[in-house]
């Protein structure tokens, strides 16, 4: 009488089950850690922002900076000269107003450069770092200075120079209020960035 040989567990149903080593996953992680390019690619994939968006943003920033510089060098001096010629009673204030607006535009340009740096950090997937806070602080400083300049222009044009028409001081006031509102928004976003950076640091420490 023939004795049926028991089937080996690996030959059950004619299939050989796959065996996964417990060391496979740590080894893979070790290989990733030994490969800086792989780590960088993993960081880039976690950035969550398309490279196309980063490029479009940087192109827009370049356009804005170019327009601001053109206004500082050509448009604003031309407007100041024409205003002093058409309204001689306000001519003594033309140079001071011109310098104030040029300084505000300089703050605007520096803020755009800081936004450029933040976009670059975000494109590399390292926006939640302490380096980003430096550029955010620069943006806050630029917006604060520009808001103070706009508020000073409103006070001077409305209560000292009594500039007419009223659209000029009211425009300066609206710009100041808008900048202060933007400042509060950026401060809130900075607090969120600080919280997210701290949570990421804690997570990395645990891992």
From TrEMBL:
Residues 9-21 have a biased composition (Basic residues). It comes from the Bacteria. Keywords: Membrane, Transmembrane, Transmembrane helix. The chain crosses the membrane at residues 52-76, 97-119, 134-155, 167-193. Pfam families: DUF2975 (PF11188). Residues 1-42 are annotated as: Disordered. The keyword Transit peptide does not apply. This is Transmembrane transport protein. It comes from Bifidobacterium boum.
């Amino acid at each position: 009488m023939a004795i049926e040989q028991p089937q080996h567990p690996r030959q059950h149903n004619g299939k050989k089950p796959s065996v996964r080593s417990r060391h496979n996953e740590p080894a893979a992680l070790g290989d990733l850690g030994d490969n800086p390019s792989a780590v960088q690619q993993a960081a880039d994939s976690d950035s969550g922002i398309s490279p196309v968006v980063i490029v479009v943003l940087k192109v827009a920033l370049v356009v804005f900076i170019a327009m601001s510089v053109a206004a500082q060098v050509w448009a604003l001096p031309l407007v100041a000269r024409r205003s002093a010629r058409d309204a001689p009673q306000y001519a003594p204030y033309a140079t001071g107003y011109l310098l104030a607006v040029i300084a505000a535009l300089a703050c605007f340009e520096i803020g755009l450069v800081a936004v450029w740096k933040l976009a670059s950090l975000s494109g590399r997937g390292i926006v939640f770092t302490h380096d980003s806070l430096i550029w955010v602080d620069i943006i806050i400083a630029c917006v604060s200075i520009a808001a103070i300049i706009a508020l000073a222009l409103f006070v001077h044009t409305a209560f000292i120079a009594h500039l007419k028409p009223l659209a000029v001081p009211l425009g300066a006031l609206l710009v100041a209020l808008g900048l202060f509102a933007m400042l509060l928004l950026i401060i809130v976003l900075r607090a969120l960035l600080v919280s997210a950076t701290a949570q990421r640091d804690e997570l990395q420490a645990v891992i």
